[in-house]
Amino acid sequence: MFSTVLVPTDGSAGAEATIAHATELADAYGAAVHALSVVDTGVEPIGLGADDRESLYESSERRGREATIRITNRAEERDLQAARDVREGVPYREILAYVDEVDVDLIVMGTHGRTGADRVRLGSTTERVITRADVPVLSVRLAESEEPVPGDGGYDRLVIPTDGSDAAERAAEAALDIAGKYDADVHAVYVVDSTTYDLEDAPRSIVGLLKEGGQNATETIAEMARERGLDVGTDVRRGAPAEELLDYASGVDVDLVAMGTRGSAVGSGRLLGSTTARVVRRSPIPVLTVN
Questions:
Q1: Where in the chain is the domain with CATH 3.40.50.620?
Q2: Less CB within 10 Å around the terminal CB: N or C of the chain?
Q3: Pairwise CA distance, residues 188 & 165, whole Å
Q4: UspA domain: from which residue to which, for each copy (predicted)?
Q5: Is 4-140 CATH 3.40.50.920?
Q6: CATH ID of 157-290, from 3.40.50.2000, 3.40.50.620, 3.40.50.300, 3.30.70.1140
């Protein structure tokens, strides 16, 4: 499924886990690793003269160049083909352009940038890439330090949330391909959204229909897993979807969460689904998103 893996980087600290996941998957698939850094020239720094702007861009270019070298070195240590590039422009646009130019199959990138504010929300570049990319994006939480990631990684257990949508099934296809590579256990989960439905006051028939819909959705994923010879379990929960999914993933100690970006909402278009956005922003576990 994956023959070219792209790792965008701005040189932020704490990217060891991102690099580890990218090279692990590239190794499993025999894929090439591409490292890309984009010097953000899309917004003019306020209050800086021409010389100061040039110095700022040079510093960003140097940091990005060093980060891409680090990534390609790690790939080459695994005898993987590697390439790197440093560009100028609007980061998410340059990343998506590179994806098209090189025919990238998977993007692996960190979920927060340089500033303190970005540490409590999904960085705008990552969110824009997730929303607009036509290939799967693996979001990995950047660490607070550059401590080495022990071992070779790998994936033993995967959670696939589903709402029965086409996007959820596409995410399941990608996740199950990875699960097949590692003979991983699969958990398919549906959450009846108690923030939308007042379940305490709803008739039992309505609650029953919602649960039945969840059972059908998870069973669809389960059947896809069984066809690949994978061990699979299903669960239907109720509550606030993002919180329930994060709690479930933590409880079964999974290595990867895979979900669609847009869900089943009518007219959601290219907007990142609220549940997916919350999970990606808050999850300490890598999240694979598929449009």
A1: 4-140, 157-290
A2: N
A3: 13
A4: 1-141, 155-290
A5: no
A6: 3.40.50.620
Task: Compute the average pLDDT of residues 248-277.
Answer: 75
pLDDT tens per residue across span 182-228: 999 999 999 988 776 555 665 666 767 888 999 999 999 999 999 99
Q: Are 140 and 281 in contact (CB under 8 A)?
A: no
Return mean pLDDT, the chain. 86
